Amino acid sequence: MSAVNAALRRIFDLLLAPFAAGPPIVSLVLVSLLVSVLMLVVFKRTSDQVALAAVKRKIHAGLFEIRLFNDDLRAILRAQGEILRHNLTYLRLTLWPMVFILPPLVLVIAQLQFHYGYVGLRPGQPALLQVDLAPEAGGRARPAAALDLPAGLRAETE
Questions:
Q1: For position 150, what pLDDT does the model report?
Q2: Sign of the Cα pseudo-torsion (72, 73, 78, 80, in order)
Q3: pTM score, two decimals?
């Protein structure tokens, strides 16, 4: 998996390099548009569009039935049950395209997290340094700790 991430990192470095000087939202919007168009193409090619359209028509028919027979509780409950059943059928029909969409999408999201999920410290930005010392054996007191800062950094507290 690390070889795949290393290869993808190089590809994303090249793709995102022209946008490095600008705000990150520009490259995120462009990547999002490209990925969403590709996902739509894959979904259309791998799904049964005729069956999906038929299920959508049945869901719409159930909604119209609720509006038409809004004074008959039995008809409303039956229509809601049918709508729920057709929604489950719709979800079942979308599972097969998700098999093709989700793995590449997870890899793209991981690369975007790598590029945009972490920010280093900027000059003048305060940072909190927290150190947890292991307790000494035998109940002795912890050793005295000191912080040696390099030039250009200063401690605001002790």
A1: 87
A2: positive
A3: 0.68
